Amino acid sequence: MTDIVDQQTRSRMMSRIRGKNTKPELALRRALHARGFRFRLHSKKVYGRPDLVLPKYRAAVFVHGCFWHRHEGCRFATTPSTREEFWRKKFQANVARDEAVREKLLEDCWRLATVWECTLRKPDQVMATADLLSAWLRSNELQLQIGDKDGSTNP
Fold first, then answer.
1. pTM for this one?
2. In what order do the strands lie in the sheet with 52-54?
3. CB count, 10 Å around CB of 73?
């Protein structure tokens, strides 16, 4: 199957995809800040440069895009029908890197939370996700994943 847009247009479209300061990330940051949490953004001092680092809680928070990080069972984790081999390798590398970062941070005694993009699409979901994350930060749990395949905020 061929692409529906020319190569130059596709290149321009792909170049606009951001890795930092995405809409879901900004929404979660605003909600956590309103709850009194203070954090560092994309800290170079922490392996893997998590989206949010809360040194007081020794916690790292990743806001993962469902498409790029392959949220299992999520309707947003689709695979393009063109250049399937390229995308398969790209996604496998992303997932492998995520796992390596997770293992290294746990080894370094960091607490980890992964928040999937699908849980941050609506304002009420953002508030529910921030509530779950707030409770987790105050707990002693090592890991948290927010986002079921249906986009709910169940941990």
1. 0.84
2. 40-41, 52-54, 59-64, 111-116, 143-146
3. 9
**Quick one: residue 110, left, alpha or beta (phi over 0 = left, psi -120 to 50 = alpha)?**
beta
Amino acid letter for position 51: D
Q: What is the distance between the alpha carbons of residues 137 and 104, in angstroms, rounded to a whole number? A: 20
SS (HEC) of the chain = CCCCCCHHHHHHHHHCCCCCCCHHHHHHHHHHHHCCCCCEECCCCCCCCCCEEEHHHCEEEEEECHHHHCCCCCCCCCCCCCCHHHHHHHHHHHHHHHHHHHHHHHHCCCEEEEEEHHHHCCHHHHHHHHHHHHHHHHCCCCEEEECCCCCCCCC
73-125 residue pLDDT tens: 999 988 888 888 988 999 999 999 999 999 999 999 999 999 999 999 999 99
Q: Which domains does the chain have, with CATH numbers?
A: 18-146 (3.40.960.10)
Nearest alpha-carbon partner for 39 in 27, 48, 58, 52: 52
